[in-house]
Amino acid sequence: MGDFADYYREIYLRGLGGETPSIPVSIAELEQRATRSAPAS
Fold it and tell me: For every one of its 41 residues, what pLDDT tens digit does the chain have, with 9 covering 90 and above?
C-alpha cells in the first residue's frame, strides 16, 4: 500500500493539469445535489 500522502499529491497534480472533480467541492453545490437526489418525503 502506498503512502497516504500520495493520494493528495495525485489530486493536486490532476488539478494542475486542469482536471476537475466529478463530485463538487463547494458545500452549496453538494447540498443542491443531495436535495435533488434525495427521495421525496
Answer: 678 888 889 989 999 999 988 877 789 988 998 899 888 87
**CB-based burial, 5-38: b 16+ in 10 Å, e otherwise:** eeeeeeeeeeeeeeeeeeeeeeeeeeeeeeeeee
Total tally of structural domains belonging to the chain? 1
Candidates 14, 16, 34; CA nearest to 24 is 34
The domain containing residue 15 runs over which residues?
Answer: 4-37
